[in-house]
Amino acid sequence: MRQATMKGIETLVRESGAYVSRRVFSDADIYKNELENVFGRTWQFVAHDTQLPKSGDFLTTFMGEDPVLVIRQEDGSIRAFLNACSHRGPLLCMAEEGNAKSFSCPYHGWVFGADGTLLNVPREGGDGYHHQLDKGQWGLQSIRVESYKGLYFANFDPAAPSLRDYLGDFAWYLDAIFDPLPAGVEFLGGTMRQRLKCNWKIAAENIVADTYHVLAAHAVAVGVCMGDRGMQIGIEVGEKTDVDALGISATIDGHGWNANFDGQGIFGLFKDPAPWLAYVNRQRQRYIEHLGERRAWFVGSSIDGGVFPNFLFVPGFTFRQIHPKGPNECEIAMWTVVERDLPPDLKREMVRFNARMLGTSGMFETDDCANMERIAMTVNATQGSRRDSHYAMGLGRERERSDLPGLIDQRVSDTCFRGYYRRWAEFMQAESWREIPLAPRKLT
Ligand code: FES
Ligand SMILES: [Fe+2]
């Protein structure tokens, strides 16, 4: 039976998302509700084109807590299925990725094709089912899939708007990552995974919205990478006050984009930034011609953000997805994503950098995970769960701008937090997609 929508949401998310009850990070009923009302209706990332290059290539992932099998079809399309045998429900495919023509259930041996059809059933005839089983009715449960610029998203809800409408004007920002000339992006290597003892939103909000933590939480990591140079950048950023110098945070329908405009933000962390900057300067000219001056600002700049609810990116470094595993546990899946025509030695350096810095045991990652699990310790305690979390930085300062889509504030601001939790509340209380608004599109 469908989980009821949340009543009294206004007591959990108050003042435009500036104050959020810590119960949303610990309460088991709220969690059950969001599996249905958020993960049952939103578009969730399931694969990138480059992860499944050939027919029969597959990977396994999750939508909410539901295991999902994603397969490249013979006609080149991508389809997604519940990764559960339709006979009695066990996990069908246990491999993380691979290539297969069919999938055989380990329990009684039903065999499913890459298109989800039930191909073969042991004892289908007189020694078992007496030819009375209608195999056409017992294929894998198919899930709706749509794509944007090489990204495949899936949605359980047939009434959801198209992926393109779901992304709305946020696609304008995504293009700055996923539409680079001439070759697009590439998901490199495999998937890194780790489990964290905290609610999934604590891990998601860190990248969708939290630019404030970097200089405190990552002070040591920045110092190790950059020495005094890192401190100097911190001081310079602190002295700037106007939006264009600092960069922006932008929120649209719960999606978040936080970016500076210096064109070299991420590369200062490398031992030798020179080859990176040379590459970026070449790319910037292409961006100006292809996407215009405004988005060329983002090339090489430090960006973090995400597509609501759980697909997150720190371009140049890791892309990730946060899968819920109970009210107080989540799994982070991570990938290294680079521009496809990046020189091979720089690709290798990026993979190594990610392993050291943002991978499961990387310096930045361990800083963040320690703070996330410390939040989980207090929000799961009796008194601690009764307080609100504070997301009021910059409240009332968000503005629309003619040259940038979304609601905009300076980069270090809680704007994207507030947008994220306002959107979360909209999903939690809506009976159906008919009650969930989409921001009007200004851009094509
Ligand atoms: S449960 Fe899969 S074949 Fe029986
Ligand atoms: Fe961080």
Automatic annotation (TrEMBL):
GO terms for molecular function: 2 iron, 2 sulfur cluster binding; dioxygenase activity; iron ion binding. Keywords: 2Fe-2S, Dioxygenase, Iron, Iron-sulfur, Metal-binding, NAD, Oxidoreductase. Residues 43-154 form the Rieske domain. Transmembrane segments: none annotated. Pfam families: Rieske, Ring_hydroxyl_A. The keyword Metal-binding applies. Belongs to the bacterial ring-hydroxylating dioxygenase alpha subunit family. PANTHER family: 3-PHENYLPROPIONATE_CINNAMIC ACID DIOXYGENASE SUBUNIT ALPHA, CHOLINE MONOOXYGENASE, CHLOROPLASTIC. This is Rieske domain-containing protein. It comes from Immundisolibacter cernigliae.
